[in-house]
Protein backbone atom coordinates (compact mmCIF):
# COMPACT_ATOMS: atom_id res chain seq x y z
CA UNK A 1 0.00 0.00 0.00
CA UNK A 2 2.84 2.36 0.91
CA UNK A 3 4.51 1.77 -2.47
CA UNK A 4 1.23 2.45 -4.27
CA UNK A 5 0.83 5.81 -2.52
CA UNK A 6 4.43 6.78 -3.25
CA UNK A 7 4.01 5.78 -6.89
CA UNK A 8 0.75 7.73 -7.15
CA UNK A 9 2.40 10.82 -5.66
CA UNK A 10 5.33 10.46 -8.06
CA UNK A 11 2.93 10.21 -11.02
CA UNK A 12 0.99 13.26 -9.85
CA UNK A 13 4.16 15.35 -9.46
CA UNK A 14 5.40 14.21 -12.87
CA UNK A 15 2.06 15.05 -14.51
CA UNK A 16 1.98 18.49 -12.88
CA UNK A 17 5.52 19.28 -14.08
CA UNK A 18 4.62 18.19 -17.60
CA UNK A 19 1.46 20.27 -17.54
CA UNK A 20 3.46 23.26 -16.31
CA UNK A 21 6.01 22.81 -19.12
CA UNK A 22 3.24 22.67 -21.71
CA UNK A 23 1.63 25.83 -20.33
CA UNK A 24 4.96 27.69 -20.43
CA UNK A 25 5.45 26.88 -24.11
CA UNK A 26 2.50 29.10 -24.98
CA UNK A 27 -0.10 28.41 -27.60
CA UNK A 28 0.73 26.75 -30.90
CA UNK A 29 -1.11 28.24 -33.85
CA UNK A 30 -1.76 26.62 -37.22
CA UNK A 31 -1.60 29.73 -39.39
CA UNK A 32 1.00 31.91 -41.02
CA UNK A 33 1.62 35.07 -38.97
CA UNK A 34 0.13 38.30 -40.27
CA UNK A 35 3.00 39.80 -42.21
CA UNK A 36 1.89 42.69 -44.42
CA UNK A 37 5.01 42.52 -46.62
CA UNK A 38 4.33 38.83 -47.28
CA UNK A 39 0.65 39.48 -47.98
CA UNK A 40 1.51 42.29 -50.39
CA UNK A 41 3.91 40.00 -52.26
CA UNK A 42 1.19 37.48 -53.13
CA UNK A 43 -0.20 37.77 -56.66
CA UNK A 44 -3.85 38.66 -57.11
CA UNK A 45 -5.78 35.61 -58.28
CA UNK A 46 -7.24 35.94 -61.77
CA UNK A 47 -10.05 33.54 -62.68
CA UNK A 48 -10.56 32.42 -66.24
CA UNK A 49 -13.96 33.15 -67.77
CA UNK A 50 -14.87 29.44 -67.50
CA UNK A 51 -13.90 29.33 -63.81
CA UNK A 52 -15.76 32.55 -63.04
CA UNK A 53 -18.90 31.15 -64.71
CA UNK A 54 -18.79 27.85 -62.79
CA UNK A 55 -21.29 27.50 -59.95
CA UNK A 56 -19.81 25.57 -57.06
CA UNK A 57 -21.85 23.81 -54.37
CA UNK A 58 -22.04 25.56 -51.01
CA UNK A 59 -20.72 22.44 -49.28
CA UNK A 60 -19.33 18.99 -50.08
CA UNK A 61 -19.33 16.02 -47.70
CA UNK A 62 -16.29 13.96 -48.68
CA UNK A 63 -17.03 11.44 -45.93
CA UNK A 64 -19.72 10.03 -48.23
CA UNK A 65 -17.06 9.10 -50.81
CA UNK A 66 -15.42 5.66 -50.81
CA UNK A 67 -11.96 7.28 -50.59
CA UNK A 68 -12.56 8.67 -47.08
CA UNK A 69 -11.37 6.43 -44.18
CA UNK A 70 -14.11 3.88 -43.49
CA UNK A 71 -14.36 0.80 -41.28
CA UNK A 72 -12.96 -2.41 -42.69
CA UNK A 73 -16.35 -3.45 -44.02
CA UNK A 74 -16.90 0.02 -45.51
CA UNK A 75 -20.21 0.46 -43.68
CA UNK A 76 -19.30 3.51 -41.60
CA UNK A 77 -16.82 6.37 -41.48
CA UNK A 78 -13.82 5.39 -39.36
CA UNK A 79 -13.32 8.03 -36.66
CA UNK A 80 -9.78 8.55 -35.40
CA UNK A 81 -9.52 8.67 -31.62
CA UNK A 82 -6.53 10.79 -30.63
CA UNK A 83 -7.30 10.12 -26.96
CA UNK A 84 -5.26 12.38 -24.67
CA UNK A 85 -2.67 13.50 -27.22
CA UNK A 86 -2.29 16.88 -28.91
CA UNK A 87 -2.28 15.19 -32.31
CA UNK A 88 -5.40 16.86 -33.72
CA UNK A 89 -3.51 18.55 -36.58
CA UNK A 90 -1.85 15.26 -37.52
CA UNK A 91 -5.18 13.43 -37.31
CA UNK A 92 -7.06 15.91 -39.48
CA UNK A 93 -4.24 16.36 -41.98
CA UNK A 94 -2.94 12.79 -42.31
CA UNK A 95 -5.84 10.57 -41.32
CA UNK A 96 -8.56 12.47 -43.16
CA UNK A 97 -7.24 14.91 -45.79
CA UNK A 98 -4.12 13.02 -46.93
CA UNK A 99 -5.84 9.63 -46.92
CA UNK A 100 -8.78 10.97 -48.94
CA UNK A 101 -6.52 12.57 -51.57
CA UNK A 102 -4.18 9.57 -51.75
CA UNK A 103 -7.03 7.09 -52.14
CA UNK A 104 -8.90 9.30 -54.62
CA UNK A 105 -5.82 9.66 -56.84
CA UNK A 106 -5.26 5.88 -56.81
CA UNK A 107 -8.96 5.10 -57.19
CA UNK A 108 -9.06 2.84 -54.12
CA UNK A 109 -11.50 2.67 -51.23
CA UNK A 110 -10.33 3.86 -47.80
CA UNK A 111 -11.69 0.86 -45.94
CA UNK A 112 -8.59 -1.21 -45.21
CA UNK A 113 -5.54 -0.78 -42.97
CA UNK A 114 -3.52 -0.47 -46.20
CA UNK A 115 -5.55 2.59 -47.30
CA UNK A 116 -5.82 4.34 -43.93
CA UNK A 117 -2.82 6.25 -42.61
CA UNK A 118 -1.39 6.42 -39.07
CA UNK A 119 -1.11 10.02 -37.79
CA UNK A 120 0.96 8.96 -34.79
CA UNK A 121 3.64 7.56 -37.08
CA UNK A 122 4.56 11.22 -37.66
CA UNK A 123 3.25 12.83 -34.45
CA UNK A 124 5.48 10.75 -32.22
CA UNK A 125 8.57 12.11 -33.99
CA UNK A 126 7.36 15.70 -33.82
CA UNK A 127 6.35 15.98 -30.18
CA UNK A 128 9.68 15.02 -28.59
CA UNK A 129 7.94 12.82 -26.03
CA UNK A 130 5.47 15.52 -24.99
CA UNK A 131 2.03 14.03 -25.69
CA UNK A 132 0.31 17.39 -25.22
CA UNK A 133 2.33 19.21 -27.86
CA UNK A 134 0.37 20.34 -30.88
CA UNK A 135 1.67 21.32 -34.31
CA UNK A 136 0.87 23.92 -36.97
CA UNK A 137 -0.70 22.39 -40.08
CA UNK A 138 2.10 23.58 -42.36
CA UNK A 139 4.60 21.64 -40.23
CA UNK A 140 2.57 18.46 -40.81
CA UNK A 141 2.60 19.01 -44.59
CA UNK A 142 6.36 19.61 -44.54
CA UNK A 143 6.83 16.31 -42.70
CA UNK A 144 4.56 14.54 -45.18
CA UNK A 145 6.61 15.85 -48.09
CA UNK A 146 9.93 15.01 -46.46
CA UNK A 147 9.21 11.66 -44.77
CA UNK A 148 5.89 10.33 -46.03
CA UNK A 149 3.60 8.49 -43.64
CA UNK A 150 2.97 4.89 -42.67
CA UNK A 151 -0.27 3.06 -43.28
CA UNK A 152 -2.15 1.52 -40.39
CA UNK A 153 -1.01 -1.88 -41.69
CA UNK A 154 2.65 -0.85 -41.40
CA UNK A 155 2.35 1.03 -38.11
CA UNK A 156 3.24 -1.28 -35.23
CA UNK A 157 0.55 0.05 -32.89
CA UNK A 158 -3.06 -0.89 -33.34
CA UNK A 159 -5.45 1.81 -34.50
CA UNK A 160 -6.98 2.13 -31.07
CA UNK A 161 -3.69 2.62 -29.20
CA UNK A 162 -1.58 5.73 -28.88
Which features does this protein show?
162 residues, single chain, mainly alpha
Largest sheet: none
Radius of gyration, Cα only, in angstroms?
Answer: 21 Å
Class by SSE composition: mainly alpha
Average pLDDT, rounded to a whole number, is 77
What are the segments in which pLDDT stays under 50 over at least 5 consecutive residues? 8-13, 19-30
Topology, element by element:
Blueprint: H1 2-25, H2 36-41, H3 49-53, H4 88-106, H5 120-126, H6 137-147
Q: What's the quick description here?
A:
With 162 residues, the chain is an all-alpha fold. The protein is 44% helix and 0% strand. The protein has a domain at 61-162.
Question: How would you characterize this protein structure?
Answer:
The chain has 162 residues and is mainly α. It has a domain at 61-162. It has six helices and no strands. The protein is globular, with a radius of gyration of 21 Å. The protein starts with a helix and ends in a 15-residue tail after the last helix.
Amino acid sequence: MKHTIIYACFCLVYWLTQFSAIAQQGPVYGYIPDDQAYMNSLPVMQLSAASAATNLPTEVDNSQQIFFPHSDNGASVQMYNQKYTGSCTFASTIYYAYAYEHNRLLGVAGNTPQTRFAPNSQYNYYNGGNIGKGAPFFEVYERLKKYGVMTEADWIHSFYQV
